[in-house]
Amino acid sequence: MADHRNGSTQPPNGKASTAGSAYSIDLNAFQLRLKTFYKHWDEHKTDLWGSSDAIAIACPPPSEDLRYLKSTALNLWLLGFEFPETIMVFMKKQIHILCSPKKASILESVKKSAREAVGADLVLHVKLKNDDGTALMDAIFRAIRAQSTSDGRDSSSVGYISREAPEGKLLEAWTEKLKNTKFHLSDVANGLSSLFASKSNEELTSIKRAAYLTTSVMKNFVVTKLENVIDEEKKVSHSTLMEETEKVILEPSKVNCKLKADNVDICYPPIFQSGGEFDLRPSAVSNDELLHYDSASVIICAVGARYKSYCSNIARTFLIDADPLQSRAYEVLLKAHEAVIGSMKPGNKLSAAYQAAVSVVERDAPDLVSYLTKSAGTGIGIEFRESGLNLNAKNEQTIREGMVFNVSLGFQNLQSEKNKSKNKQFSLLLADTVIINKDKTEIVTSTSSKALKDVAYSFNEDEEEERPSTKADVKGAEPIMSKTTLRSDNHEISKEELRRQHQAELARQKNEETARRLAGGGNEGGDNRSSVRTSAELVAYKNINDLPPPKEMMIQIDQKNEAVLLPINGSMVPFHVAFIRTVSSQQDTNRNCYIRIIFNVPGTPFSSNDANSMKFPGSIYLKEASFRSKDSRHISEVVQSIKTLRRQVVARESERAERATLVTQEKLQLANNRFKPIRLSDLWIRPAFGGRGRKIPGTLEAHVNGFRYSTTRQDERVDIMFGNIKHAFFQPAENEMITLLHFHLHNHIMVGNKKTKDVQFYVEVMDMVQNVGGGKRSAYDPDELEEEQRERDRKNKINVEFQTFVNRVNDLWGQPQFNGLDLEFDQPLRELGFPGVPHKSSVFIVPTSACLVELIETPFLVVTLSEIEIVNLERVGLGQKNFDMTIVFKDFKRDVLRIDSIPSTSLDGIKEWLDTTDIKYYESRLNLNWRQILKTITDDPQSFIEGGGWEFLNLEATDSESENSEESDKGYEPSDVEPESDSEDDASDSESLVESEDDDEEDDSEEDSEEEKGKTWEELEREASNADREKGNESDSEEDRKRRKAKSFGKSRGAGLSSSMPKRSKLR
Fold first, then answer.
1. Which of 101, 768, 784, 897 could form a disulfide with 887 if both were Cys (CB 3.0 to 4.6 A apart)?
2. Is the model's pTM score more than 0.90?
3. In this structure, are strands 624-629 and 882-889 parallel, antiparallel, or unpaired?
4. Are 363 and 58 in contact (CB under 8 A)?
């Protein structure tokens, strides 16, 4: 059998001399496809098979050349292997095969299957080594004549592939004898093309795997390689790039594809073209010229891969500092390419697909019509180009479900505006592999982007600055959003000046956008929570008869009804445990034990609003009860029981309240036999499931419309719908201990009994161990080196497993049904990261393409860049070792996010990152009171807009207007604030916009008060004394009382004083 370049699947170097046991024909597939073959022959005998009574297929000897033959394709489709120098003749009642002894031994196994499938007997004509085979050929011809005679016909019609010239002595002898017979010969190439056109599910799976390999090579190798070559200005020839890419295709593991190398091959040698010489045919060859990447250069890359003999193809064009004509032509080509794919639906004509492309070009760029390729692609499968399925203007064949096409469209030999000889002429090409399904068209190579922003590279920044005015003059051309700036030759204008100019433009755009949003009332926010069940709805006993019979006049705990029965005035009085705020016990010197129970009472500070106060406004409530006992053991048991019961009830009610606010999710559709779930095992989850049992790892599976994480425990399961995922992140372990997948959701879900918007799955890449021996180990200790190598290998293995899972899920999300979700795993850009304190501890915060994240420490930080209004960098000044970053969101009802203690060394990097992501930033010397600022803006948006919008934060502008004004650090001063008054009420109404330390101290005191669980008598006494001292004697003057009050509460909270404080204020 032939070398793998001719299509055999396994083994790659399988020759005819190999033992027959090495090959196993899939009898089920053979039976099904033989039946399909005979059915198609019977139904289309006249129009496609030339009224043939017998079909003769002669497969040529093996060749090192990469070629596609219909005889080879039939061998592979029917038997799974190529059988070179083999002649097959199909008749209604018999199948005759002339071959060598070893091939005959393999084909013996299909005799029974052939009889069961179509009722035909398989007759093997074994050709010995020294036999020329003519006698065996005569026997086959006699069988053909005998069949015609039995059917009552004088002559026989034999179909064969007329375009395939005979090779080798055996086939030359066969062709000569066939033509010398009196048979009527007809070409059956069209019949074979139609037979191969519609693919089975098994064939489509092979094509999808080939496409997965093709796109992985394009994304993970070709694009990266080109970027490195151009960025480092290397000299590399097209042929060298071709050879390196071919090696990668033949070793899928190099691009993290878990496909067996034995099953893959190239469709054609990869094509790289640049420098003005372009050939858009698949037969093009990468020449030995160097890759050309000067300004206005075009680079065309085409890659084709096969999996189990089934082909896929992709082609992309990359633009380097594109001129207006190039960018316009590419945009038109992209629209035309998408129009072709959009028109390819079952029942449509093939000519309509090409006409859709022509219509787009005629509408958007009529001057380019003559440069459009004459075909939009061909059918693809075992053959790279399936004849009869050309997408051109003349083909009237109908598109059917199961067909697969290589949609390839381009502009040939366009003339550029540049005068350089190598760039004057250029071509553009786009190609994708497309599967025709019943209800949709599936682009299986779509994960390799062809959007202009992803293929256009900026080579020279100073040219970029001048280019927009030129582009505006070209009809239909828009400024290019370049994917990458590879290097800068601009030494005239500093980076800071360019950034300042860009920020000024961003400020103008941001103020216009904010004004439109505020004018339109587009400031949605708020928390639409459903009402939580109040304690009024918690009833221990509905009827007095439900009370348990009193045993003794002592405190009892009714676990079933969640009640505490207290002996009061000789009766057992029940209280639901939810009404109890705290319970404590103590013992005096006389060994008397006391139990103190403090109840939740409406109207007390920091207690939740209760419906009881509304229902029974005149009621008197029990605030506290104390009991004495000589039995210390009983008192301890009671306290412990009440605390345990209360904890259970509070947890249950909290979970119930959380679940009441959840958005109903769609139901997870589990993968069936056609779609095997993508699986990643041995993962831990955060937040972790509740319970006291030992934590166990689980498995994450990607199903039809979502993920499912489950462990071996029945109740530990989490479903995450694709539609609920807002952002997905993959962070491989580099300097961290874990490799993780993180999902940030639109709506909360429950993980165990926790409500969360962030779910993370991770694996520890190395064990956390500590050497307690005390001795130092040598850096050259063999055991130490071996252990480090094992840890590195384990880390790399885990990272590759996660990367493979991510790639497969990205491919799944690339399917048309998920286009509206815009899902793709994002990866943090570590080189842009910086340390900071977003919550309580210092962490390393890292930007991604769409977010700012911190995914290692909890609570997690995920900020969507598109939701950011502006960023204010606070405490920025000379001599400061660190500064703070305040993020203001477009939803002004949402609290700002502040990241504290960022090292000043990170300032320039953060400014550069904010500028490149088109986020407007300001700088201030003090921390601002953002809650008051946002309240003022939302209360009077018109004044905010008329006052210049966010420009009140522009420190440079404010300083230039009034250098001596203290208000330059205050921030935006609302116009309707009245002047300071001496009275306390007026002072409290006009809060400062610059945060003071007193605000935070008061906030801290309130938080401490919230945590208070009931005061002792000594504390109550002390508070009363403080209040008396504050109030003072009746004879004290008003001035003395004010002085005492100021002394007891610390510094004054007046707006004027707090604004001039040089201290750094605390976190909100």
1. 897
2. no
3. unpaired
4. no
